[in-house]
């Protein structure tokens, strides 16, 4: 670790150095990485849609300067921003890019490197410990102790009010504080790049040999892709959300009355203490006399969501409380929360996509968190109708089909799984058929019968839908449909459960079977896909025995599981589960990132710019495995082309041992396009 005991002086442009000499110096720097410019802003607040810069700071690694807003907007500095050959380094880059754009300056045309992303790739485990913040990085990697805003300016204000304090402060104090951010950022970019270049990665789909190649090819362009998505925002149908509020509030009031009637006393459904008393007190003391399912760390009976769900089938009070809590969350987090997050003039939400938000590389979002919108069920459908592309636009929504299972087939090399996916079979139905020893098509028919609306006669409809079967065969499938569909449900739960490290206990609870029955089901699943068991054993052993305890995605991104040799059983078991999950979930994330970059760079779909592609389209959102694109609503031909091309680029994002499959649709809102 370098130790920078002597810092270069903080120079105020226009006072300590001539404006023209300053701009000329920057313009004469070499293009690309060797002449990179570190950039940072000091702003009126932290709202990416509303706040603006007050000052900017830059560094070339040797000097550091402070600029006023007027100097930032000088045509000579704008020329640097518009130069596609320039390379910029920033800390929390998307924020500074938003601030610059908020005062009418153009999009950064050159490469933008974020030292937060570099650091997360160098050591993803810092996120929960030492942290990824600039000050923490400067302390640990450079030996530079950076003072906090409060200590520097001797004020106690919220982050949103720091701008006012800056305007009142001595300019030399501002210059010293602000320009050190840019200087430290430049030095960190050098240090991180050095480490990433010498960090070797195993054979992978993209033939990267070190982590720096992964970073430059995937993470660097992805930063700008995410910035454009944040900048565009997604439109919210406010009148629609208002229409949901009244009936939901009425239902919530009715549920509260029902809860009190069932409890036979006043009861706050959100109070664990009151719930504990009602559920577990003896009947002669006014309680329900239930036996606790589990206990909290303090030894009290638990009243968490899992406990209430376990009781809900037989205890109406628990079912009512669950519905009440669900409605409360929908109203506060989504119905009211989405409206609060929307910019009033545009009704658009500009969520923050967190590129370093998870240790596996999977994207997260905040302000608001759109990743938590339910993927299934009535609530998910209801909420997704509120998301639109805005006036004059429709939304293309495409997602991957069984992507994690495709990744599992690729990394395990299991022949049965590869053949099933390659031949276009429904993997879970195929698995169920092997587990039960029945025909694959019988499981498909049983699933089809289950999904058929009740008004239809399944035998009569079945003769039309499945002409290869006679009445007797269809009646036999109908009689066995519960077992056939149950086996498919179990196969699906086991497949996804294994990827997330779930054992027989969790599976037993989900399927409503005994632990021994769950163990038997897991063994049957492994008998169907024996190479998956071998892969799991291999990848866990790799994590234990490698010096860095790393497992890798198909693109070579590492997940370092340093706790896998812990003497603590719980800690070790968590790392063993992560050894299975991280390569699968991380690979899915890498594939999705590359697909989004391909879409964003495509001349017709994304144009590699904020304005979007030549078809008038642009990326809006990415949630779970879904990618959303805006498209002009008045051109049916372009809508069809955009939908087809988007799916094609998603499939082309990675060449696995099995073909990836993407499906999509176009409509006025997220739900109807699914």
N- and C-termini, Cα separation: 51 Å
Low-confidence stretches: none
CATH class of the largest domain, anyone? Alpha Beta
CATH architecture of the largest domain: 2-Layer Sandwich
User: Could you name the CATH homologous superfamily of the largest domain?
Assistant: Ribonuclease H-like superfamily/Ribonuclease H
Shape: globular
Q: How many domains make up the coordinates?
A: 4
Mean pLDDT: 92
Treating each run of at least 4 consecutive H or I residues as one helix, how many helices?
28
Helix content, binned percent: 40-55%
Strands, count: 17
Write the layout of secondary structure elements.
Blueprint: E1 10-12, H1 19-27, E2 37-43, E3 53-59, E4 64-68, H2 69-72, H3 75-81, E5 87-90, H4 93-102, E6 111-114, H5 115-122, H6 134-142, H7 149-153, H8 162-168, H9 171-198, H10 211-232, E7 234-236, H11 238-263, H12 272-280, H13 305-312, H14 316-341, E8 348-349, E9 352-354, E10 364-366, H15 377-384, E11 387-388, E12 393-400, H16 403-412, H17 415-422, H18 427-436, H19 440-451, H20 458-465, H21 471-479, H22 481-499, H23 504-511, H24 515-528, H25 530-545, E13 550-552, E14 558-560, H26 569-601, E15 618-623, E16 626-632, H27 636-651, E17 662-667, H28 670-673
Parallel strand pairs: 1-4, 2-5, 5-6
Antiparallel strand pairs: 2-3, 3-4, 7-8, 7-11, 9-10, 12-16, 12-17, 13-14, 15-16
């Amino acid at each position: 670790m370098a130790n920078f005991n002597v810092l270069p002086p903080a120079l105020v442009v226009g006072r300590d150095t001539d404006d023209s000499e300053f701009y000329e110096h920057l313009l004469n720097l070499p293009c690309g990485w060797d002449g990179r410019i570190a950039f940072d802003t000091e702003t009126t607040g932290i709202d990416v849609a509303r706040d603006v810069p007050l000052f900017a700071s830059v560094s070339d690694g040797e000097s550091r300067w402070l600029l006023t807003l007027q100097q930032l907007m000088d045509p000579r500095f704008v020329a640097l921003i518009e130069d596609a050959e320039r390379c910029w380094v920033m800390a929390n880059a998307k924020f500074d890019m938003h601030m610059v754009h908020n005062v009418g300056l153009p999009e950064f045309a050159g490469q933008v490197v974020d030292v937060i992303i570099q650091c997360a790739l160098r050591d993803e485990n810092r996120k929960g410990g030492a942290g990824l913040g600039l000050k923490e990085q400067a302390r640990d990697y450079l030996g530079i102790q950076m003072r906090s805003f409060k200590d520097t300016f001797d004020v106690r204000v919220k982050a949103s009010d720091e701008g006012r304090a800056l305007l009142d402060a001595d300019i030399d104090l501002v210059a010293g504080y602000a320009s050190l951010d840019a200087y430290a950022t430049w030095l960190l970019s050098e240090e991180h790049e050095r480490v990433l270049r010498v960090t070797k990665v195993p054979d992978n789909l993209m033939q990267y040999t070190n982590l720096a190649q992964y970073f430059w090819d995937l993470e660097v362009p992805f930063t700008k892709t995410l910035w454009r998505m944040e900048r565009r925002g997604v439109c919210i149908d406010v009148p629609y959300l208002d229409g949901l509020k009244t009936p939901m509030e009425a239902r919530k009031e009715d549920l509260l009355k029902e809860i009190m009637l069932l409890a036979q006393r006043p009861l706050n459904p959100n109070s664990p203490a009151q719930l504990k008393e009602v559920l577990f007190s003896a009947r002669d003391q006014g309680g329900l006399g239930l036996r606790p399912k589990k206990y909290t760390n303090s030894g009290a009976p638990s009243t968490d969501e899992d406990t209430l769900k376990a009781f809900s089938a037989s205890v109406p009070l628990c079912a009512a409380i669950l519905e009440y809590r669900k409605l409360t969350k929908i109203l506060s987090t989504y119905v009211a929360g989405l409206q609060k997050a929307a910019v009033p003039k545009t009704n658009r939400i500009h969520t923050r996509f967190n590129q370093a938000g998870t240790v596996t590389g999977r994207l997260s979002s905040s302000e608001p968190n759109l990743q938590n919108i339910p993927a299934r069920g009535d609530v998910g459908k209801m909420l997704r109708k509120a998301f639109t592309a805005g006036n004059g636009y429709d939304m293309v929504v495409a997602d991957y089909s069984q992507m994690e299972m495709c990744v599992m087939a690729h990394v395990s090399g299991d022949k049965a799984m590869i053949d099933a996916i390659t031949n276009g079979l429904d993997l879970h139905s195929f698995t169920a058929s092997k587990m039960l020893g029945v025909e694959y098509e019988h499981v498909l028919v049983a699933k089809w019968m289950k999904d058929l609306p009740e008004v239809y006669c399944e035998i009569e409809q079945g003769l039309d839908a499945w002409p290869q079967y006679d009445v007797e065969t269809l009646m036999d499938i109908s009689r066995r449909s519960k077992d056939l569909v149950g086996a498919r449900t179990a196969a699906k739960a086991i497949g996804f459960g294994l990827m997330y490290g779930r054992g027989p206990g969790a599976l037993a609870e989900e399927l409503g079977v005994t632990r021994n029955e769950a163990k038997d089901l897991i063994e049957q699943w492994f008998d169907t896909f024996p190479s998956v068991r071998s892969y799991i054993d291999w990848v866990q052993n790799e994590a234990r025995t490698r010096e860095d305890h790393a497992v890798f995605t198909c693109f070579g991104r590492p997940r370092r599981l340093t706790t896998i040799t812990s003497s603590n059983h719980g800690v070790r078991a968590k790392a063993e589960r992560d050894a299975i999950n991280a390569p699968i979930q991380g690979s899915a994330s890498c594939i999705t990132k590359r697909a989004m970059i391909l879409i964003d760079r495509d001349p017709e779909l994304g144009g590699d710019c904020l304005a979007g592609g030549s078809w008038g389209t642009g990326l809006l959102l990415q949630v779970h495995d879904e990618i959303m694109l805006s498209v002009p609503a008045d051109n049916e031909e372009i809508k069809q082309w955009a939908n087809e091309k988007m799916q094609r680029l998603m499939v082309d994002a990675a060449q696995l041992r099995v073909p990836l499959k993407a499906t999509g649709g176009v409509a006025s809102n997220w739900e109807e396009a699914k």
